[in-house]
Design goal:
The chain is built from ten helices and 14 strands. The chain has 363 residues and is α+β, with helices and mostly antiparallel strands. The chain folds into two domains: 213 residues, Trna Endonuclease, Chain: A, domain 1 (3-Layer(aba) Sandwich); 141 residues, Yope Regulator, Chain: A, CATH 3.30.1460. The strands form three sheets. Strands 3, 4, 5, 6, 7, 8 and 9 form a seven-stranded mixed sheet that branches. Strand 7, helix 5 and strand 8 form a beta-alpha-beta unit. The longest helix has 24 residues. InterPro entries: DUF4268, tRNA_endonuc-like_dom_sf. This is DUF4268 domain-containing protein. It comes from Campylobacter lari. One of its GO terms (molecular function) is nucleic acid binding.
């Protein structure tokens, strides 16, 4: 690594150091650097635990546990100047321990790590999903990342063989430098090399797509489709025109137009509740807030007719909503008749109440 001198149009070599020379330790330094900035490993990762040792029947402990954007667990094992000869076996062993973790196990582990923070909100933010029920932590594949300044031949040989057997393992070489009493760290993926990494990702994506095709009717989607079918059949029986041309969906929502282009009525089916709503989204955040505010000017009058509506301007987000909901164990089919009656009855009333105010909106 070199420092560029613009004035002299030259470069100066930085002194390559060892972690030992700089008195950096694995747990206090390297592990903390990665935990605080996991993107140094070339992708967005969410650290969910450090120094993890919660395994039945063993006191073994590994360095960092993370989630990737696909909902896979990532075991990160750090070494300093020397990888040692057993790091591959250690990491594979830890991955095998983690392979049995369910979504609830992973939630518990993360809750212990972040203490009093809202774990659902953080997971939704990481995965870019609004509804927590859609957060996908299936732990179908456990990944391994090994970090060290130098890797022994027996380690690189074993890693390359395991990659060929379909395991997702990466090796990152970390090199500390010093210049004018300042320290620098270079992080470089060395296994697999970039060309091989692209190939592996393509093959993994192909396999994931095939798995999605083979498992297209996952349990959650089946439940939703069955529920929407039942609800829409009841709507047809009652000649409720608003949703008469809507098809069932595997999503947790179905929607119908309100007559005003930027507002739509929605039925929402979550695991722990159902709701009706007016969803406002013109793709323009400022316009959405104006529409919401115009409706909210009539809040008192509207609430006199329809009590307990929840008005959500959602300033931090683009869209807005006005909703009415009730808690249920929605996946328990014995609740469905009551849920459907609640949703249809209140949606009919909601449409009648909101329609004149929606029609008055002018932008």
């Amino acid at each position: 690594m070199y420092k560029i001198n613009k004035l002299e149009n030259s470069i100066t070599k930085l002194a390559e150091k060892t972690f030992k020379e700089l008195e950096f330790t694995e747990r206090k330094h390297l592990q903390e650097w990665i935990a605080k900035n996991p993107s140094c490993l070339g992708e967005d990762l969410l650290i969910i635990q450090k120094e993890f040792d919660d395994f039945d029947g063993t006191k073994e402990r590994f360095d960092l546990l993370a989630l990737d954007k696909e909902g896979n667990l990532v075991i990160i094992e750090n070494k300093l100047d020397d990888s040692g000869k057993d790091v591959t076996w250690q990491a594979v062993k830890y991955a095998s321990y983690c392979s049995t973790f369910s979504k609830s196990d992973i939630e518990r582990i993360y809750i212990e790590y972040i203490k009093n923070e809202n774990y659902k909100e953080k997971l939704c933010d990481f995965f870019g999903i609004e509804n927590y029920d859609d957060v996908k932590i299936e732990n179908q594949q456990q990944r391994i990342i090994l970090v060290a300044a130098n890797f022994r031949k027996e380690v690189t040989s074993a890693v390359l063989w395991l990659i060929n057997q379909g395991l997702y393992i990466q090796c990152f070489k970390v090199t500390p430098y010093e210049f004018n009493q300042e320290c620098f760290l270079n992080v470089e993926q060395i296994i697999p090399i970039k060309e091989a990494q692209d190939y592996i990702i393509k093959m993994a994506k192909k396999e994931q797509e095939q798995n999605l095709i083979n498992n297209s009717e996952k349990q959650r989607h089946i439940i939703r489709l069955n529920f929407w079918n039942k609800l829409l059949n009841k709507i047809k029986e009652e000649n409720f025109e608003l949703f008469s041309n809507i098809s069932p969906s595997k999503d947790n929502w179905i929607a119908a137009r309100s007559g005003f282009g930027f507002c739509q009525y929605g039925f929402i089916f979550n695991k722990d509740c159902v709701r009706i709503e007016l969803y406002i989204d013109s793709k323009d955040k400022d316009k959405n807030k104006i529409i919401f505010d115009k409706l909210k000017e009539n809040e008192k009058e509207i609430n006199n007719t329809f009590e307990n509506l929840i008005w959500e301007r959602l300033d931090e987000k683009r869209a807005c909503r006005i909703k009415f909901e009730k808690e249920y164990d929605s996946y328990d089919e014995t609740n469905w008749n009551e849920m459907i009656d609640f949703m249809i009855e209140n949606m009919k009333k909601f449409e009648i109440v909101m329609k004149p105010y929606i029609q008055k909106i002018k932008l």
